[in-house]
Amino acid sequence: MTSLPDTLKLGTRGSPLAMTQANMVRDALIAAHKLAPRAIEIVPIKTSGDKIQDRALAEVGGKALWTKEIDRALEDGRIDFAVHSMKDVETIRPSGIAIAAMLERADVRDRLIGAESISAIAAGGRVGTSSPRRSAQILRARPDLEIVLFRGNVATRLEKLERGEADATLLAAAGLDRLGQAGIGHAVPVEQMLPAPSQGAVGIECLADRGALRAFLGAIDHATTHMCVAAERLLLEKLGADCRSPVAALALREAMGLWLRAELLSNDGREHVTGEAHFAIGDDAAVAELAASLLDRSPPALRALFTG
Ligand SMILES: NCc1[nH]cc(CCC(=O)O)c1CC(=O)O
């Protein structure tokens, strides 16, 4: 790769999960290209999202809080590429930034910690989460439960649970597994709790006009993950969803193409619309049709959460 610098700078948030994911990407690139370890340098970047711990993300400005400082570093050339949890990357990205690759998706499920199943949470119990999707899904299944705001990184949320600030919490299995907490909690089947769009996927972004770098990063792209996550993200775009919209979606590869399932909920979980579609890879119109059908079938109060 003659057109690439000797050392490539990988930008990431500095949380333990982000650093673990950055190291996974670094290791994969080093193995794929038989590089010396010093060829990729990890550059932790503090984002606004990391500084705000006491309010729900939806209240304070959305997912861009986790990307804008890193986007700036890409644009300024302080880093060559960035690693993100795809779940935290806004649907509409700056046009100069491209998703160059995704690692193979991990377990897409949420894990419930503090009870063996949603039905086993004590009557009237408190569930800690700041995710509109998780709280709406929990309230739909168990209207008797109370939602308490839980923010912070995975370790902070587990500490809050430990301190008794809630009886149970939900965290992504992918994050727990990557942090060496594979033994914690009970996976909730996707039939019971459809995950967030992009959950479990790690993405790599760089400037769109850096062709040689994109090819270099593309060497570790997991094509199936990339097309499934792209379909879930396109659905969010077509729904006009933002980080406040309680929405779940999961695409799976099947013989003839993709199977995409989605669920829209009102915040209290009382309104609920689901849909699914089977379509050929690249059939964006089928995704748009699914979005339109979900919105069509939504009562006005639910549709209002997806105005975009
Ligand atoms: N919003 C925080 C976030 N972003 C990505 C993950 C987990 C890893 C993943 O989904 O890939 C988490 C924590 C969680 O939801 O439990």
TrEMBL record:
Record-linked InterPro entries: HemC, Porphobilin_deaminase_cofac_BS, Porphobilin_deaminase_N, Porphobilinogen_deaminase_C, Porphobilinogen_deaminase_C_sf
- Enzyme class at the top of the EC tree: transferase
Q: Does the keyword Chloroplast apply?
A: no
Q: What is its EC number?
A: 2.5.1.61
Q: Where are the transmembrane segments?
A: none
Task: List the molecular function annotations (GO) for this entry.
Answer: hydroxymethylbilane synthase activity
Catalyzed reaction equations? 4 porphobilinogen + H2O = hydroxymethylbilane + 4 NH4(+)
Task: Note the PANTHER family from the entry.
Answer: PORPHOBILINOGEN DEAMINASE (PTHR11557:SF0)
Task: Cite any additional comment in the entry.
Answer: The porphobilinogen subunits are added to the dipyrromethane group.
Q: Which family does it belong to?
A: Belongs to the HMBS family.
According to UniProt, the name of this protein is: Porphobilinogen deaminase
Q: Tell me the gene name.
A: hemC
